[in-house]
Specification:
Blueprint: H1 3-19, H2 22-42, H3 47-70, H4 75-80, H5 82-86, H6 93-120, H7 122-125, H8 132-136, H9 143-170, H10 174-202, H11 214-227, H12 240-262
Helix pairs in contact: 1-6, 2-3, 2-6, 3-6, 3-9, 3-10, 3-11, 6-9, 6-12, 9-10, 9-11, 9-12, 11-12
């Protein structure tokens, strides 16, 4: 079997592990129902309004979902002793981490996209009046705006899961992993954002530095791709290219560092 074959085996094992874990299934179901419920409670008849309704809650919930699924991904193998068995296979640490990440990424992406399907189904079935900006720009609102939002969120979820995988590689125990995961979620959602916003507003610092925060990069990406095209004024921030590059850099660096730590 080739090394890529072992990667596929590891990914399949991780996928099945998540599906066999009742707590993770409960968290995933809760996420889907919560995001879908926000869409249905809003009852909006416009995709732009739905994006604006979901943006802040999803920005907070996606890291929670990703860390719930990923914070024990590598730690579990180390604690159970399975890592020692995996070391005997002809697979390097890098590809082992990639396999673990891919298996859990399928679950996270599936849950994120399923929640958007549920929330998005409210728009064509709603009788609620559209936003005034949409009413004055008939061609502004379209499913393409919502699709861009879903794709940007999928990338954000992959980044959050990569950071969770890094935390799992760095943790030495279940208690330590939980503490690191909790601290990382708080840092992503509140700490790093607040620090960068303070630097931008308090000093002559370009708004491009906001891309250093995954949450800020994601938010700017959504505003530029799904809100600005409708004619709505959005706050200044990183460009689409800078935000995308920053998120990809976070994903790559997190997985690269996780690969070095997991095999030690």
């Amino acid at each position: 079997m080739t090394e890529l074959g072992y990667v596929a085996d590891v990914a399949e094992r991780e996928f099945r592990t998540v599906l066999r874990t009742p707590l993770l299934l409960a968290v995933g179901l809760g996420y889907v129902l919560l995001v879908g419920g926000i869409g249905w409670l809003g009852g909006t008849g416009a995709y732009l309004a739905l994006v604006l309704d979901l943006l802040t809650p999803v920005e907070l919930l996606v890291p929670v979902l990703s860390f719930a699924v990923g914070y024990r991904a590598l730690l579990g193998d180390r604690e159970s002793g399975e890592l020692e068995t995996i070391r005997t296979y002809p697979i390097t640490g890098h590809w082992y981490v990639v396999g673990v990440y891919l298996g859990r990424a399928v679950v996270v992406l599936g849950l994120v996209l399923l929640s958007f399907v549920l929330a998005g189904s409210v728009v064509p079935t709603s009788d609620t009046a559209q936003l005034s900006v949409v009413a004055s720009h008939p061609t502004a609102d379209s499913p393409a705006l919502y699709l861009r939002y879903a794709l940007a969120t999928a990338l954000f979820a992959l980044v959050a899961l990569a950071i969770a995988t890094l935390v799992s590689a760095a943790a030495r125990s279940t208690r330590g992993g939980l503490a690191l995961a909790t601290g990382s979620v708080v840092a992503l959602v509140v700490g790093l954002d607040s620090a960068l916003l303070g630097a931008v507003t308090g000093e002559q610092v370009p708004t491009t530095v906001l891309a250093l925060s995954p949450n800020s990069a994601y938010r700017s990406l959504v505003l530029e791709l799904s809100v600005a095209p409708t004619g709505v004024a959005v706050p200044g921030g990183p460009t689409v290219l800078v935000s995308t590059a920053a998120l990809c850099a976070w994903l790559t660096l997190a997985l690269g560092l996780a690969s070095r730590l997991a095999w030690r």
